[in-house]
Amino acid sequence: MALGVNDAPRVTVRLAAPLRQRAGGRAALPVAGRTVGEVLAALVAEHPGLRPRLRSPTGGLRPHILVFVNAQDVRAREGEETPLSPGDDVFILPAVEGG
After folding, report:
1. Closest listed residue to residue 11, CA positions, set 82, 71, 80, 69
2. 12-23 per-position pLDDT tens digit
3. What number does CATH give the domain 3-94?
């Protein structure tokens, strides 16, 4: 059963390796949500250890966390209000810095 809103589209959330340990070691999870924000809320409700990695103390998405829907950065779309369709892939990964 997918996490999230029952009548919402089911999507697959794919977590980058550094986040997987906070989600029981899983790389992919089925989650239901109409928007990226709903999916993120369902994800952290089921896996609270992800909350401090994904959310700032004020509740916003941390700036170093990148979220893509079907390889499109949500920052170039509607952010957390980006609508989702059944079967979408939502990728969550921390930005890599350094040189």
Report:
1. 69
2. 999 999 999 999
3. 3.10.20.30
